[in-house]
Amino acid sequence: MNYLEEYYNTHDEDSRLLSKHGQIEYLTTMKYIHEYLSGVSGAAVLEVGAGTGRYSVALAKEGYNVTAVELVAHNLDILRSKLDGTEPITVLQGNALDLSALADGKFDLTMLLGPMYHLYTKADKLRAMSEAVRVTRPGGCIMVAYCMNEPTVILYVFAAKHLDEVLANGMLTEDWHCKSEPKEIIDLVRTEDIDSLDSVFPVERVKLIATDGAAHYLMDMIDGMDAGTFSRWMDYHFSICERQDLIGASNHTLDILKKSDRPRTVEA
């Protein structure tokens, strides 16, 4: 069993997304998924790294034709338990680095809402992106989620008083970029890292979204909000989540890309 399997065998991902502060990431991601799918008739949707199915199952229950690919068997068991057999969904065990079971240009929307969190080299990130681009139709959409560097520096290194620990373990570069290995579970990036990955592929950015914005800085406050106040917080969040001056401070981001109608040769 590797670090990732051990983590997800004990981690309750659904509960994270059901807290008020966790709902912000989910509601924001679904908002932009729906914005794209509303203009695509009979959309074929692929989620790579589907986890326990929070997105895939919801979209399938809305009637979208979904293919869900997930690496961890424990997550697949939970995902399947949420289905009643009537949903238009295909569930496969697979790896973001090798989608060879799926045909070129098959999907209108391809989502990587988790894999980039757990890929620790640029070569692996490029491979996952390459596969996602390959299986997406020309003109189709690719949505890629990332965990950002600065919230961890602010909240974990300084606020939680782990500075001495991370310095002693060599976990920070001189310019304060967190280093990650599989045992740390999550890989962290900056906007320039995302830009560098995108530049390799025949895609153009539609939007880069701060999916949870200030949520992780204000968890207790947000979780204590009544329904009306939380609704207004979401109004505020949606009004600023596309502001590029705030992207790097968000814990999670969503890179929304359009695949070119005229693909070029990919050089990794």
List keywords for this structure.
alpha/beta; 268 residues; single chain; Rossmann fold; 11 helices; disordered C terminus; globular
Give the secondary structure arrangement, pairings included.
Elements: H1 3-10, H2 13-18, H3 20-37, E1 44-48, H4 54-61, E2 65-70, H5 73-81, E3 89-93, E4 107-112, H6 122-135, E5 136-147, H7 149-159, H8 163-168, H9 191-198, E6 203-210, H10 219-223, H11 227-240, E7 252-259
Parallel strand pairs: 1-2, 1-4, 2-3, 4-5
Antiparallel strand pairs: 5-7, 6-7
Classify the helix fraction into a percent range: 25-40%
CATH architecture identity: 3-Layer(aba) Sandwich
Number of domains: 1
What structural category do the secondary elements indicate? Answer: alpha/beta
Strand content: 15-25%
CATH-assigned fold name: Rossmann fold
- Regions with little confidence, pLDDT below 50 for 5+ residues: 263-268
Rg, alpha carbons: 18 Å
Please give the oligomerization state of what you see.
single chain
Overall pLDDT metric: 92
User: What is the tally of helical segments?
Assistant: 11
The description of the largest β-sheet is: 7 strands, mixed
How many β-strand stretches?
A: 7
Order of strands, main sheet, comes to 3-2-1-4-5-7-6
Overall description:
With 268 residues, the chain is α/β, with parallel strands linked by helices. It has a single domain (3-147, 185-259), classed as Vaccinia Virus protein VP39 (Rossmann fold), CATH 3.40.50. Helices cover 40% and strands 19% of the residues. It has 11 helices and 7 strands. The chain has helices at 3-10, 13-18, 20-37, 54-61, 73-81, 122-135, 149-159, 163-168, 191-198, 219-223, 227-240, and strands spanning 44-48, 65-70, 89-93, 107-112, 136-147, 203-210, 252-259. It has a 7-stranded mixed β-sheet. Helix 4 links the parallel strand 1 (44-48) and strand 2 (65-70). The longest helix has 18 residues, at 20-37. It is globular. The chain starts with a helix and ends in a 9-residue tail after the last strand. The model is unreliable at 263-268 (pLDDT under 50).
